[in-house]
Amino acid sequence: MASKAAQKRLAKEYVNIQKESPPFVWAAPDEKNILTWNYLIRGPPDSPFAGGEYHGVILFPSDYPFKPPGIKMITPSGRFEPDRKICLSMSDFHPGSWNPAWSCATILTGILSFMLTDEMTTGSVTSTDADKRAFAQRSHAWNILQPRFKAAFPEHCAPELRNLPNMGEQPAAASEPSSATSGASSSVPT
Predict the structure, then answer these.
(1) What domains can you pick out in the chain, each with its CATH number?
(2) Confidence bin at 1 (pLDDT 50/70/90)
(3) How far apart are CA 182 and CA 171, in angstroms?
């Protein structure tokens, strides 16, 4: 159960992210538990993730903002192991480096920034750019088959990819990559 401080802080962060979300990201708390937030990251157009849609969760502790959250990406991406906690400086792997001034928006920006690097950490995988493009191309179709995604983002379950709130125009889906090599630890959805 969330402390009153955590509830108040997360409610304020949700209002702020609805008004102005960082580029390429969106998040919202679970309706039944304010400590669990679902997020969507759209792959930036100048990256191997272009056209991709990546669902994940941020698991805030009951004493947030004084302790860091756990972070997972659920959608196969070629960058992170699906549904496994990711070790980042702003995650519960590193409580000593946590800054209570950081917010959900800061965390989402950090996840996206780290996703765009090749740095390895717990929860990350190595794959080729072709693998990442293949995952990106299939990400929306994979997401809309997942009960967790459908429950969190029912408005994004149409067969075609839709824009996130406050994000404006997004690039068209990545072109069909030639056969991707299997360098990722999770399988490319078909």
Answers:
(1) 4-152 (3.10.110.10)
(2) confident
(3) 26
CB atoms inside a 10 Å sphere around CB 178: 8
Instruction: Report the alpha-carbon distance of residue 139 to residue 53 in Å, rounded.
Output: 6
Contact between 34 and 7 under an 8 Å Cβ cutoff? The reply is yes
List phi, psi (to 5°) of 77: -130, -15
Q: Which residues participate in catalysis according to the annotation?
A: 87
124: which strand partners? Answer: 80
Contact call for residues 137 and 173 (beta carbons, < 8 A):
yes
Greater confidence (91 vs 179) lies with: 91
165: preceding bond cis by omega (within 30 degrees):
no
Per-residue pLDDT tens digits for 134-160: 999 999 999 999 999 999 999 999 888
- Tell me how far apart the alpha carbons of residues 153 and 31 are, in angstroms, rounded to a whole number: 11
pLDDT, tens digit, for every residue of 97-134?
999 999 999 999 999 999 999 999 999 999 999 999 99
